[in-house]
Design brief:
This protein is mainly beta. It has 4 helices and 19 strands.
Protein backbone atom coordinates (compact mmCIF):
# COMPACT_ATOMS: atom_id res chain seq x y z
CA UNK A 1 0.00 0.00 0.00
CA UNK A 2 1.36 3.44 -0.97
CA UNK A 3 0.39 6.71 0.70
CA UNK A 4 -0.11 9.56 -1.78
CA UNK A 5 1.61 12.48 0.02
CA UNK A 6 -0.49 15.03 -1.87
CA UNK A 7 -3.73 13.53 -0.55
CA UNK A 8 -4.98 11.38 2.28
CA UNK A 9 -5.87 8.61 -0.18
CA UNK A 10 -4.06 5.31 0.08
CA UNK A 11 -3.28 3.81 -3.30
CA UNK A 12 -3.48 0.07 -3.88
CA UNK A 13 -1.19 -0.54 -6.91
CA UNK A 14 -2.91 -2.90 -9.33
CA UNK A 15 -1.06 -6.10 -10.12
CA UNK A 16 -1.77 -8.67 -12.82
CA UNK A 17 -1.77 -12.33 -11.82
CA UNK A 18 -1.76 -15.04 -14.50
CA UNK A 19 -2.45 -18.67 -13.66
CA UNK A 20 -1.99 -21.39 -16.27
CA UNK A 21 -2.76 -25.10 -16.38
CA UNK A 22 -5.24 -27.38 -14.68
CA UNK A 23 -3.54 -26.78 -11.32
CA UNK A 24 -3.95 -23.00 -11.71
CA UNK A 25 -0.33 -22.23 -10.87
CA UNK A 26 0.97 -18.68 -11.22
CA UNK A 27 3.63 -18.14 -13.91
CA UNK A 28 5.56 -15.69 -11.74
CA UNK A 29 8.91 -16.73 -13.24
CA UNK A 30 7.75 -15.39 -16.65
CA UNK A 31 6.65 -11.99 -15.31
CA UNK A 32 10.05 -10.37 -16.07
CA UNK A 33 9.28 -10.96 -19.77
CA UNK A 34 5.64 -9.80 -19.60
CA UNK A 35 5.11 -6.49 -21.42
CA UNK A 36 1.33 -6.16 -21.83
CA UNK A 37 -1.97 -7.80 -20.92
CA UNK A 38 -5.20 -6.61 -22.53
CA UNK A 39 -8.67 -8.04 -21.87
CA UNK A 40 -11.67 -7.12 -24.00
CA UNK A 41 -14.98 -7.96 -22.34
CA UNK A 42 -18.47 -7.06 -23.52
CA UNK A 43 -22.03 -8.31 -23.23
CA UNK A 44 -22.27 -9.06 -26.93
CA UNK A 45 -19.03 -11.00 -27.57
CA UNK A 46 -16.86 -13.58 -25.81
CA UNK A 47 -14.22 -12.19 -23.47
CA UNK A 48 -10.79 -12.32 -25.12
CA UNK A 49 -7.33 -11.56 -23.81
CA UNK A 50 -3.97 -10.86 -25.44
CA UNK A 51 -0.80 -11.44 -23.45
CA UNK A 52 2.50 -10.20 -24.87
CA UNK A 53 5.92 -11.36 -23.72
CA UNK A 54 9.34 -10.26 -24.87
CA UNK A 55 11.53 -13.32 -25.21
CA UNK A 56 15.18 -14.07 -24.61
CA UNK A 57 17.39 -17.14 -24.92
CA UNK A 58 19.55 -18.65 -22.22
CA UNK A 59 23.16 -19.76 -22.61
CA UNK A 60 22.06 -23.05 -24.20
CA UNK A 61 19.91 -21.27 -26.79
CA UNK A 62 16.57 -22.17 -25.19
CA UNK A 63 13.85 -19.53 -25.38
CA UNK A 64 12.48 -18.65 -21.96
CA UNK A 65 8.84 -18.21 -23.05
CA UNK A 66 8.09 -20.15 -26.24
CA UNK A 67 10.02 -23.21 -25.03
CA UNK A 68 8.15 -23.17 -21.72
CA UNK A 69 5.76 -26.10 -21.83
CA UNK A 70 3.09 -24.27 -19.84
CA UNK A 71 2.31 -21.79 -22.62
CA UNK A 72 0.43 -23.97 -25.11
CA UNK A 73 -2.95 -23.98 -26.90
CA UNK A 74 -5.89 -25.29 -24.86
CA UNK A 75 -4.17 -24.82 -21.54
CA UNK A 76 -6.62 -23.38 -18.98
CA UNK A 77 -5.81 -19.80 -18.00
CA UNK A 78 -7.07 -17.37 -15.36
CA UNK A 79 -6.23 -13.66 -15.31
CA UNK A 80 -6.75 -11.76 -12.06
CA UNK A 81 -6.23 -8.20 -10.86
CA UNK A 82 -4.86 -7.69 -7.37
CA UNK A 83 -5.43 -4.43 -5.51
CA UNK A 84 -3.35 -4.68 -2.36
CA UNK A 85 -4.68 -7.69 -0.47
CA UNK A 86 -7.86 -7.94 -2.58
CA UNK A 87 -7.91 -10.07 -5.73
CA UNK A 88 -10.65 -10.03 -8.39
CA UNK A 89 -10.93 -12.29 -11.41
CA UNK A 90 -10.82 -10.58 -14.80
CA UNK A 91 -11.36 -13.58 -17.07
CA UNK A 92 -10.87 -17.32 -17.27
CA UNK A 93 -10.83 -19.64 -20.21
CA UNK A 94 -8.28 -21.23 -22.50
CA UNK A 95 -5.22 -20.31 -24.51
CA UNK A 96 -6.46 -20.21 -28.08
CA UNK A 97 -3.29 -19.36 -29.99
CA UNK A 98 0.42 -18.89 -29.34
CA UNK A 99 2.37 -16.83 -31.86
CA UNK A 100 6.13 -16.26 -31.80
CA UNK A 101 7.54 -13.31 -33.78
CA UNK A 102 11.21 -13.21 -34.78
CA UNK A 103 11.97 -9.81 -36.37
CA UNK A 104 15.31 -8.75 -37.83
CA UNK A 105 16.30 -7.33 -34.46
CA UNK A 106 16.72 -10.40 -32.24
CA UNK A 107 16.20 -8.24 -29.17
CA UNK A 108 12.63 -7.53 -30.31
CA UNK A 109 11.52 -11.18 -30.41
CA UNK A 110 8.18 -11.62 -28.70
CA UNK A 111 5.49 -14.17 -27.96
CA UNK A 112 1.81 -13.24 -28.26
CA UNK A 113 -0.74 -15.42 -26.47
CA UNK A 114 -4.40 -15.14 -27.50
CA UNK A 115 -7.01 -16.36 -25.01
CA UNK A 116 -10.79 -16.72 -24.94
CA UNK A 117 -13.23 -17.33 -22.13
CA UNK A 118 -14.73 -20.72 -21.23
CA UNK A 119 -17.08 -20.56 -24.20
CA UNK A 120 -14.16 -21.68 -26.39
CA UNK A 121 -14.48 -25.23 -25.07
CA UNK A 122 -18.08 -25.29 -26.36
CA UNK A 123 -16.92 -24.48 -29.89
CA UNK A 124 -15.07 -27.71 -30.73
CA UNK A 125 -17.71 -30.25 -31.76
CA UNK A 126 -20.59 -30.05 -34.24
CA UNK A 127 -23.65 -31.53 -32.54
CA UNK A 128 -26.84 -32.76 -34.17
CA UNK A 129 -29.60 -33.32 -31.64
CA UNK A 130 -33.36 -32.89 -31.32
CA UNK A 131 -34.15 -31.30 -27.98
CA UNK A 132 -37.63 -32.23 -26.79
CA UNK A 133 -37.98 -35.03 -29.34
CA UNK A 134 -39.58 -37.42 -26.84
CA UNK A 135 -41.39 -34.76 -24.83
CA UNK A 136 -41.27 -30.94 -25.01
CA UNK A 137 -38.42 -29.53 -22.96
CA UNK A 138 -37.36 -26.14 -21.57
CA UNK A 139 -34.35 -23.83 -21.56
CA UNK A 140 -33.96 -24.55 -17.84
CA UNK A 141 -33.18 -28.15 -18.85
CA UNK A 142 -31.16 -27.47 -22.00
CA UNK A 143 -28.70 -24.93 -20.57
CA UNK A 144 -27.50 -26.89 -17.48
CA UNK A 145 -27.28 -30.08 -19.53
CA UNK A 146 -24.92 -28.52 -22.07
CA UNK A 147 -22.84 -26.67 -19.47
CA UNK A 148 -22.41 -29.84 -17.43
CA UNK A 149 -20.56 -31.48 -20.33
CA UNK A 150 -17.75 -28.96 -19.82
CA UNK A 151 -17.62 -28.79 -16.04
CA UNK A 152 -19.38 -25.42 -16.00
CA UNK A 153 -22.23 -24.43 -13.70
CA UNK A 154 -25.29 -22.30 -14.46
CA UNK A 155 -25.34 -18.97 -12.65
CA UNK A 156 -27.88 -19.07 -9.78
CA UNK A 157 -29.41 -15.88 -11.19
CA UNK A 158 -30.17 -17.42 -14.60
CA UNK A 159 -33.51 -16.70 -16.23
CA UNK A 160 -36.13 -19.39 -16.72
CA UNK A 161 -36.26 -19.04 -20.51
CA UNK A 162 -38.99 -20.68 -22.54
CA UNK A 163 -40.88 -23.95 -22.13
CA UNK A 164 -42.64 -26.41 -24.43
CA UNK A 165 -39.64 -26.56 -26.76
CA UNK A 166 -39.02 -28.99 -29.59
CA UNK A 167 -35.97 -27.67 -31.43
CA UNK A 168 -33.11 -28.97 -33.55
CA UNK A 169 -29.47 -28.35 -32.74
CA UNK A 170 -27.22 -28.45 -35.78
CA UNK A 171 -24.01 -26.73 -34.75
CA UNK A 172 -21.59 -26.36 -31.86
CA UNK A 173 -22.89 -26.07 -28.32
CA UNK A 174 -21.90 -22.41 -28.04
CA UNK A 175 -23.70 -21.57 -31.29
CA UNK A 176 -26.81 -23.29 -29.98
CA UNK A 177 -26.69 -21.57 -26.58
CA UNK A 178 -26.23 -18.19 -28.24
CA UNK A 179 -29.26 -18.86 -30.44
CA UNK A 180 -31.29 -19.74 -27.33
CA UNK A 181 -30.10 -16.55 -25.63
CA UNK A 182 -31.18 -14.49 -28.64
CA UNK A 183 -34.55 -16.26 -28.73
CA UNK A 184 -35.14 -15.20 -25.12
CA UNK A 185 -33.64 -11.72 -25.40
CA UNK A 186 -30.99 -12.82 -22.89
CA UNK A 187 -27.31 -12.21 -22.24
CA UNK A 188 -24.93 -15.19 -22.34
CA UNK A 189 -21.87 -14.46 -20.21
CA UNK A 190 -19.11 -16.76 -19.01
CA UNK A 191 -17.36 -15.79 -15.79
CA UNK A 192 -15.73 -17.52 -12.83
CA UNK A 193 -16.59 -21.01 -14.05
CA UNK A 194 -20.27 -20.21 -14.50
CA UNK A 195 -22.49 -19.14 -17.39
CA UNK A 196 -25.12 -16.45 -16.98
CA UNK A 197 -28.15 -17.03 -19.22
CA UNK A 198 -30.65 -14.32 -18.45
CA UNK A 199 -31.86 -10.75 -18.98
CA UNK A 200 -29.73 -7.65 -18.54
CA UNK A 201 -29.08 -7.13 -14.83
CA UNK A 202 -29.52 -3.43 -14.17
CA UNK A 203 -31.23 -3.83 -10.81
CA UNK A 204 -28.28 -5.58 -9.15
CA UNK A 205 -26.02 -3.97 -6.58
CA UNK A 206 -24.27 -1.05 -8.35
CA UNK A 207 -20.51 -1.05 -8.76
CA UNK A 208 -18.23 1.52 -7.19
CA UNK A 209 -18.95 5.04 -8.46
CA UNK A 210 -16.48 6.39 -11.03
CA UNK A 211 -15.42 9.81 -9.77
CA UNK A 212 -14.41 12.61 -12.18
CA UNK A 213 -13.00 16.01 -11.12
CA UNK A 214 -13.64 15.03 -7.50
CA UNK A 215 -10.39 16.08 -5.89
CA UNK A 216 -8.93 13.33 -3.72
CA UNK A 217 -11.80 10.99 -4.65
CA UNK A 218 -11.10 11.18 -8.42
CA UNK A 219 -10.71 7.68 -9.88
CA UNK A 220 -10.75 8.40 -13.65
CA UNK A 221 -7.99 9.91 -15.78
CA UNK A 222 -10.58 10.89 -18.39
CA UNK A 223 -14.27 10.32 -19.03
CA UNK A 224 -16.67 11.21 -21.85
CA UNK A 225 -20.44 10.79 -22.21
CA UNK A 226 -22.59 10.80 -25.32
CA UNK A 227 -26.37 10.85 -25.79
CA UNK A 228 -27.42 9.36 -29.15
CA UNK A 229 -30.89 10.70 -29.96
CA UNK A 230 -31.23 8.67 -33.16
CA UNK A 231 -32.43 5.54 -31.38
CA UNK A 232 -36.08 4.56 -31.29
CA UNK A 233 -38.16 4.83 -28.12
CA UNK A 234 -40.08 1.62 -28.75
CA UNK A 235 -40.38 -1.37 -31.08
CA UNK A 236 -43.40 -2.44 -33.10
CA UNK A 237 -44.20 -5.67 -34.92
CA UNK A 238 -47.16 -7.42 -36.47
CA UNK A 239 -48.51 -10.58 -34.89
CA UNK A 240 -51.35 -12.91 -35.76
CA UNK A 241 -54.76 -12.15 -34.32
CA UNK A 242 -55.87 -14.44 -31.51
CA UNK A 243 -59.16 -14.88 -33.35
CA UNK A 244 -59.19 -14.69 -37.12
CA UNK A 245 -56.58 -14.81 -39.85
CA UNK A 246 -55.46 -11.17 -39.82
CA UNK A 247 -52.63 -9.41 -38.02
CA UNK A 248 -52.48 -6.74 -35.36
CA UNK A 249 -49.70 -4.30 -34.57
CA UNK A 250 -47.96 -4.78 -31.22
CA UNK A 251 -45.88 -2.06 -29.52
CA UNK A 252 -43.16 -2.89 -27.01
CA UNK A 253 -41.67 -0.29 -24.66
CA UNK A 254 -38.41 -0.72 -22.72
CA UNK A 255 -38.87 -2.38 -19.33
CA UNK A 256 -35.43 -1.69 -17.83
CA UNK A 257 -35.25 0.02 -14.43
CA UNK A 258 -34.56 3.76 -14.59
CA UNK A 259 -30.85 4.46 -14.12
CA UNK A 260 -31.16 8.21 -13.60
CA UNK A 261 -33.63 10.91 -12.65
CA UNK A 262 -35.55 10.72 -15.91
CA UNK A 263 -35.60 8.52 -19.00
CA UNK A 264 -33.58 9.58 -22.04
CA UNK A 265 -35.98 9.47 -24.97
CA UNK A 266 -35.73 10.28 -28.65
CA UNK A 267 -38.91 12.36 -28.73
CA UNK A 268 -38.61 15.61 -30.67
CA UNK A 269 -40.80 18.70 -30.66
CA UNK A 270 -43.60 18.26 -33.18
CA UNK A 271 -42.20 14.97 -34.50
CA UNK A 272 -44.15 11.69 -34.65
CA UNK A 273 -43.40 8.86 -32.24
CA UNK A 274 -40.00 7.29 -32.81
CA UNK A 275 -40.56 3.54 -33.27
CA UNK A 276 -38.57 0.81 -34.98
CA UNK A 277 -40.44 -1.99 -36.74
CA UNK A 278 -39.20 -5.56 -36.52
CA UNK A 279 -39.64 -7.97 -39.41
CA UNK A 280 -40.34 -11.60 -38.68
CA UNK A 281 -37.51 -13.94 -39.65
CA UNK A 282 -38.44 -17.58 -40.16
CA UNK A 283 -40.84 -19.42 -37.91
CA UNK A 284 -40.89 -18.06 -34.38
CA UNK A 285 -43.31 -18.65 -31.55
CA UNK A 286 -45.17 -15.69 -30.08
CA UNK A 287 -43.04 -15.98 -26.92
CA UNK A 288 -39.82 -15.77 -28.91
CA UNK A 289 -41.18 -12.94 -31.05
CA UNK A 290 -42.08 -10.91 -27.96
CA UNK A 291 -38.76 -11.68 -26.22
CA UNK A 292 -36.74 -10.53 -29.22
CA UNK A 293 -38.80 -7.34 -29.50
CA UNK A 294 -38.39 -6.62 -25.78
CA UNK A 295 -34.64 -7.07 -25.98
CA UNK A 296 -34.43 -4.78 -29.00
CA UNK A 297 -36.46 -2.10 -27.23
CA UNK A 298 -34.22 -2.35 -24.17
CA UNK A 299 -31.03 -2.12 -26.25
CA UNK A 300 -32.33 0.97 -28.03
CA UNK A 301 -33.17 2.64 -24.71
CA UNK A 302 -29.49 2.58 -23.66
CA UNK A 303 -28.66 5.71 -25.62
CA UNK A 304 -26.54 7.45 -22.97
CA UNK A 305 -23.09 5.85 -22.94
CA UNK A 306 -19.82 6.67 -21.25
CA UNK A 307 -16.21 5.89 -22.06
CA UNK A 308 -13.11 6.60 -20.05
CA UNK A 309 -9.88 5.46 -18.46
CA UNK A 310 -9.73 4.47 -14.81
CA UNK A 311 -6.89 4.92 -12.36
CA UNK A 312 -6.93 1.30 -11.23
CA UNK A 313 -4.87 2.00 -8.11
CA UNK A 314 -7.57 4.40 -6.86
CA UNK A 315 -10.71 2.72 -8.22
CA UNK A 316 -9.49 -0.57 -6.82
CA UNK A 317 -11.94 -2.87 -8.60
CA UNK A 318 -12.44 -4.72 -11.87
CA UNK A 319 -15.23 -2.91 -13.72
CA UNK A 320 -17.79 -5.47 -14.88
Amino acid sequence: MILDFLTTKRREPAECIIRVGSAGLEIADLYPFLTEVTVDASRAEPTVATITFESRRDEQGKWFVQDDGRIAPWEPIVIEAAFGSDTEEVMRGYIREVRADYPEDAGSARVIVECRDDSLALDREHVREVWGGDAPTADMVIVPTILGKYGLAPDPANGSGQTGLVINQDGTDIEFLRSRAEANGYDLLFREGMAYFGPMRLDAEPQETIMVYAGEATSAYRFSVKDDGHQADRVTFDRAETAGSGTVSETVDPDLPLLGNEAATGAGSGLPDFAWRMSRQGEMSEDEWMARAQRRANDLSLRVKGEGELDGSLYGHVLR
